[in-house]
Specification:
Number of helices: 9
Structural class: alpha/beta
Order of helices and strands: EEEHEHEHHHEHEHEEEEHEH
Oligomer: single chain
Distance between the termini: 26 Å
Radius of gyration: 23 Å
Strand order of the largest sheet: 5-6-7-3-8-9
Length: 302
Amino acid sequence: MNLTKHGPGSDAAVRIRRLRKTYGDVSAVDGIDLDIARGETFALLGPNGAGKSTTIEILEGYRLRSSGDVSVLGVDPARGDLGWRARLGIVLQSATESGVYTVREQLAHFARFYSSPRDVDEVIAAVGLEAKAGTRVGRLSGGQRRRVDVALGIIGRPELLFLDEPTTGFDPEARREFWQLIRRLKAEGTTIVLTTHYLDEAAQLGDRAGIIAGGRLVDVGPIDTLGGPEARIPVVRWVDADGVPREVRSERPAELVASLARLGTEPERLEVVRPSLEDIYLQLVRSADDSAAARDDEEVLA
């Protein structure tokens, strides 16, 4: 499968070819190919330990790769200088440490590191912290500190923004407000790379998504195409007259339900289930795990 086929061609903010990262005999990242277009919001999904964080850290220049070619905003991140780093915005998983500075003071301090920063009060408003602008960061709640992290990530007006689990600790209303902020940044032309365990967040924000499992990119494309057409075939479930659970995948579920009704008795526990993004994601991850186990068995037998 050509996992870059939906990519942008030559105008890529991120270009990855044959990326590998190994630790001894363990491959944390195992041959990833991927393009991310300028101005695109790309969601990178996968279970813990799948290789997401390692891949992102390589792109950010915080971790060296074992092999492969990587370009981020036209620069090899292993050789990125301060000028290149100033073009990036990074929101890490961990929350801002407690501090003695107020929200406004901390943002104003970071703004001085950039040649063309956003207005501090504009950023405070964008992350919904107007009422806390004069509060010391150390006195904020976990969710409010997370908003400070996001504010620090966008204060420099980055061309490319990395968001690693950005809404951890947000209540539902705060998450919705954050989504609106990301949409505004995208409308301004910001390229966004998002890692998240919230699949609804990926569906809301992502133009495309990639799923990593076992260090490999197992699928990539627009959210509504992941897994391919077969993954979206509805499933009809019921219990037959003998009490045996039955399950059939059918592209014509209504016809199947009608045929069951013509048998003369109403099937028990009849339901038609259309696979959700979560169902498709879990199936892709399970299939990748099964393939990895089969490869391991072959290596043992070889």
